[in-house]
Every structure is written in structure tokens, then in C-alpha cells.
Amino acid sequence: MTGLSKYFYIASTSAKSNVAYLGEVASRVIFLAVILYIFLRLWQVTYAETGASELGGFTLAQMLWYLAVTESIILSAPRITQMVDRDVRTGELAVHLIKPMSYPLYCLGTSMGERVVRFALNLGVGLVIALIFVGPIPLQPLSIACLLLALPLAFVLDFLANFLIGLGAFWLEDTTGLVLIYSRITMILGGMLIPIELFPEAMQSWLRVLPFASIVYGPAKMLVAPSTSALTELLIIQSLGIVGVGALVAIVYGIASRRVFANGG
Prior knowledge:
The chain is an all-alpha fold. It has 12 helices and no strands.
């Protein structure tokens, strides 16, 4: 097994492992169902009190479908930071470094395999719930295509950010605080609960160019309101984010690797 094929195999193995342990995934699905129901009620009251049929260009049905995607993205995130943190603290990273494979790509393969399964299950349940409560929304082949094109880059960008935080274990006693800060910023500035259109106008332009929105808001918006021009802009922002964060990962990982070898790893 040579080249990238080994990492695709790792991703496939990770996906199969998550399918085998559906009990843990089912608990996340139940949590998603409860969250969506709560948000449905909140948004129903909001739309009723304002007397508006649309808020930020979203109907109530579109809002819940949007939330189904954003919640699925957030809840499907693997605990990659904790995995890297553990490997650093236990010394298992030193073992990985002598294997004929890249440790970051190994983690990427593991993460992507796990995330694809979790996201697919979460999204399936989320859309069924949305369909039951608010009915269907107009979906075109373009909607599905835009979502499928935006998701892989969103997942890779999110992985890189979490992997970078995990590498902080080389210098910090505990990275849990950083993980919490990153996750909350992603939820808020990424538009998980509220679409970017409902933020103050002065904030909307810079929120859209931040990587957080391209991880959560961008893919979800592609499903409910697809646009080739918006997709192109989103893919550019995601690509730039991957290059930027990827460069930071390469620099920090290079420094961290030298620390392992310097200490006899």
C-alpha cells in the first residue's frame, strides 16, 4: 500500500468502526432531535412575534432545514484534539513518527472516516425531523451539489484547526480550554444558531470571510439557498483558510517533532 491509498484505507477503517458502534452515534442523534425541536419552538415564537414570513431571507421551514445542517456539522466533529493531546502525553506520538506514514495525514484519515458517518446519520435524522415539523423546502440538484462540494473543505479546515490546538499539548498542561474557546467561537461566529444575515450589518461582511462561517454557515446556506457565485466565494475562502491554517500546522508540527526527537522519542 503506497502513497495516499494508505490514508484512504485508514479513513475507510475509521468509518467502518463508527458504523459498528452505532450506540454512541445514536445518542448524538437523540440529542440532535431534542435540540432541533427546541429551536423549532423558539423560531416559531420569533416568527410569530415579528409577524414576518421571512427573517434574513429565511422562511421558518428554511430556518429549520438550515439548523439541521449546522447542528449536524457541529455534532459530527470528531475529538481530534483530545486524540493528539493523548498521543503527546502518553508518548504514543513517538511511535507514530517511526511508522512509514505522516502522522497529520493519519489523523486526517481517521477524522474524515469518523466524521462522514456521523454527519450522514445526523443529517438524515435532522432532515426527517425538519420534514415532519415544517415540511419540505424547494430543493434543486444544485442545492445538493453545492452542499457536497462545500462539505469536504469545511471538514478539512475544521480538522486543521483542531489538530493545531492539539499540538499545543507540547507546551500546555491542558488544551481543554482552547478546545472550548474554539468550539464556542465556531458555534457563534460560524452561524450555527443564527444565520449571518441576522447579525448586525456592520459584522456580516467580516464574519463571512472568517474561517468559522465557511465551516458551518457556508455549507448550510448552500442547501437552503444555493448559488454558484456564493459557492465559488465559499470555496475560495475555504481554500485560503486551509492554506493558512495548514501552513501554521506545518510550522508548529515541525517544531513539535524536533522536541520529540530531542527528548529521545
